[in-house]
Design brief:
By secondary structure, the chain is mostly helical. The chain contains 9 helices and no strands. The protein has 2 domains: 62 residues, no CATH class; 95 residues, no CATH class. Helix 5 runs antiparallel to helix 7.
Length: 167
Amino acid sequence: MTARMNISLPDELKDRMDALREPVNWSGVAAKAYERKLEELDPTPKEFTMAEAVERLRASRETYVTEPAFEIAADRYGEGLIAGMAWAREAAEWPALMQLERIAGSASPSQWEKDVNLAEAAQNAIAPGDCEAFWQERAEEPAPPARYIHGFTDGALTILDEVKKRL
């Protein structure tokens, strides 16, 4: 179910939005902003079912794909998250996931931002051989930023956690 609401915007902002050539899902942009504010005001973690996670990520992916002008660091994390989940579901081997969990399983977001060695170690666990070819295939660049690798790692570990619950 989706609720509808009206918001007021300054005329100048609305004019700038209308002038964009690319289609933008403004409802999705607003929903993400509301969600961020709610998390800021009430940081209590929410329990997600796998169906909710899939739905949330599907919406996030659709917003990312339809909003090329809205590419910020968070989008790279989200892009990596989706790719990491897909890799863990479709191609990852157990030893690589276990090594990735040992390296990055307890790392905080601030550690990812400050410790370049963490991203490098995670990258080597994910693609121990030819890192550049691996990332070129999945991220369409030979060396994605740490934010993407952080998302990729979190996505892969999310799938690993779900698989462990079912073993």
